[in-house]
Amino acid sequence: MSPEGASKTMAARLWPCLVALLFSTSTAAAERIASLNLCVDQLLLDWVDHERIVSVTWLSANEHYRRAALPEHVTLNRGHAEELLGLEPDLVLVGQYGGGRAAARLRQLGVPVVTIPDAHNLAQLQQQLQALAAELDDNAELLRQAGRLGQILQQPRPAELLSAMILSANNLTYGSGMLEHELLERAGFRNLAADPDGGEGGQLQRVMLEQVIAAEPELLVLYGGEQTFALAHLAARHPVIRRYVDSGRVFTLPAELGFCPALVAADVLEKLRQKRESLVEQQ
Amino acid sequence: MMEPERSANVACRELCLERQGQRVLDNLSCAFHPGELTAVIGPNGAGKSSLLQLLAGVLNASAGEVSINEQPLADFSPAARARLCAYLPQSEVPAWSVSAADLVALGLLPWGRLKDREERVRRALGKVGGADFAQRAVTRLSGGELRRVQLARLLVGEAPLLIADEPTAALDIRHQLQLLQTLRGIADSGKTVILALHDLSLAARFCDRVILLDEGRLRAQGTPRDVFTPAMIGDVYGVSCEFRWRDGEPEFVVFDLI
Amino acid sequence: MLNSNRIALGLLGVALPLALLAALVSGPVSIDLAAALRDSWRGESSEAVILWQLRLPRALLAILVGAALGMGGAAMQGLLRNPLAEPALLGVSSGAALAAILLLYYGLAWQSGWWLPLLAIGGAFVAVLSVWALAGRGASASRLVLAGVAINAFLSALMALALNYAPSMFAMQEIVFWLLGSLANRGWDQLLLALPFIIAGGLLLFASRNYLRALTLGEASAASLGFGGRRHPLLLLLGIAAAVGAAVAVAGTIGFIGLVVPHLMRPLVGQDPARLLWASALCGALLLLLADIFVLNFVGAQELRIGAVTAFIGAPFFFWLIVSARRGGAL
Q: Residues near C134 by Cβ (< 8 Å), separated by ≥ 6?
């Protein structure tokens, strides 16, 4: 065989691969998207044409997380590779934690798997949105949300800070380093649970009701979610909290902020700013 | 307030008791009188304890009736019945290690609050010779001492009817004798005393009357001298024996199984 | 009763208000107690709110729950003539726990926090009445214990099932926390809810004191003393169900108080099961309040559940009980 002929056959062999490569990058290749992550489920269901979704996790059918009726053709998975293989997805999105085993198996079998990072603060949230934008091919809704968030973040922070404290389920409060803390700060509040030195005030802490009362925050921030009576919400139902409720000094964070901040971060920030303005007016 | 009834004439008419389909007592009629010490005797399983429980009102008869002073026992309120009749079961192990005096004071429960409670307890313990260990915990009493304390519990309320189920069980011969002498004295003071006994010699020696039960039926009743014949005892217990009466004191000798 | 025992009981009585004071100054926030006390209980200052709305109801609830558990334990041991009995033996606690768990499990949208304690009290009554029905005529102690073990086993199986099928980690955590018991975040509303039941239960137990005394001699002797029939044990059981059920309903299952306290008090009251009732109530109140003070001062907001603390006090005491019984002391 002549060298020429050899190169021709090489090109003939390479050509389909090249086409496939071009196709996958240039156009909206992923037409059968599956998700192994609760938050990604919600984002897909919110932002992406439902025809393109083939599977979401079983948790998304749970009434605690479900935001709208699930499309009938979407299969619920429990994070097993075999469940997804039969659906022949052309894109599988997984979170940073959980579903790792299934993701590794799918990768071995040649299914395109992309990890979407979790978001525990604003910087990570922007990374998450970028990662998603890359995979979802500049989805319009996603870009709108990302743009809105970026726009709000660029607004100047109010000079006069009001004090605030978060009281979440099981007497948890959010200190510096947490997304909830950053949102409060950006909206013009001083989080009383945060320690400026970054010492004990970091991350999640337990707080007793009397510490909340003694700190006298100007805004008490509760975490929404379980509407039902629960021991975890006993603190938030205590009569001493009624003073805050009665005087309108309570803000309730949506439960989605806890498991998928990308959905609601921009909304929360906007509402927190409005809340601050109304509090300032009251004073 | 003490019980107005000073004496108790007890009568049972055609008493029957069934337990889990088995007839424990069958058509039993007998009577007990004030001033008399009556022994209920019979082999194991003859129904002695059941009869005593019916008399004390702890059990209810399947048929027939127990009456005290012509009044059916069922007509009495539990408290009134408790004021009439004091009962000591076959084995009464105190659950808590209360003092002897406290245990005796339990006998006063049917009478409610009494002002002279401590005095009564002291007197009752005195009657059984137990003044020395009034403050001792009942778990630290010997078997004989405990029995005496329990007897004092029966005496303290001054019920006219005393019923004790085998009070001499587990006592040595000296304490058996002592206990029956005490009971004899109590009967002599006008009370109706009913005992279940296994020791025929003691029954013959101390009791005015005996009631002999066999398989739930009344076999014989009367004075010990009438009832305790070798033929009757041999028939009921299945042993050959001999009774001799010497100066009114019985001598009872068992020879062998029949 | 010896004089030294009277003194010991008197000391307990004095210790309770002192412990109450200690509880009022315990907490992560240091407050000026005198100033807060001068401020009326409707005071708006944060110190007054902390004292009157947070610390006082919590301390009083500890006293109330401890008293109910101590009294319930003394009554249960008297009823069953068994020093190892505890109020939970006849299903009171598991009945209350199961009712609460079902409520938490189904997460029914009750708007008010009153449903959980009310249903838990109902559960305690249902459990006790089931034991009662199962034990049948006569209701002797041994049959009550057998029926209690059976009902408890069944309730535990149901609880295990509920845990197994818990719809979310959140529900599971709720159930576990409930079973551990806690006084955190409780307010006047919980106190007022439990109070009538505990008082009613206490009155029933107090009315049964002579029955308990008579039971010292056993069931037959008690019947001959005028305490025959099923009425007396039923009233006693209902008293235990009301007092302990209400305690469990507002504070979760707090173990060992009901078991340990009667043992501590028995020597002081000359083993008399009637005097033991109020002595155990006093001691139970003090013990639980001290346990709560310990939780507040040494564990803090991390909130080691008070049930775990009482178990830590109770279990070693039990070791000691066994060892001393081995040495020949009376159990």
A: C147, C150, C151
Interchain contact C/A (3 or more Cβ pairs less than 8 Å): yes
pLDDT < 50 stretches in chain C: 1, 109, 330-331
A83-109 pLDDT per residue, tens: 888 888 989 999 888 778 888 888 998
CB atoms within 10 A of CB B13: 16
* Closest to B24 measured CA to CA, from B51, B42, B52: B51
Q: What is the ipTM of this complex?
A: 0.89
Which chain B residues touch C218 with a CB distance below 8 Å?
Answer: 89, 92-93, 95
- Cα atoms in the Cβ-side hemisphere of radius 13 Å centred on A265: 32
Name the helix (H) or strand (E) containing A84.
helix A81-85
> Chains A and C: how many Cβ contacts under 8 Å?
93
C192 touches chain A (CB under 8 A): no
- What domains can be seen in chain C, in order of their start residue? 61-326 (1.10.3470.10)
All structural domains of chain B, each given as residue ranges with its CATH number in brackets, are: 10-227 (3.40.50.300), 228-258 (no CATH)
User: Which residues does A253 contact at the CB level (< 8 Å), separation at least 6?
Assistant: A166, A180, A221, A222, A223, A224, A268
A118: domain CATH number is: 3.40.50.1980
Evaluate whether C162 touches C176 at the Cβ level (below 8 Å).
no
**Chain A closest CA to C75's CA: distance in Å?**
30
Quote the strand ranges of B111-208, DSSP E. Answer: 161-165, 192-196
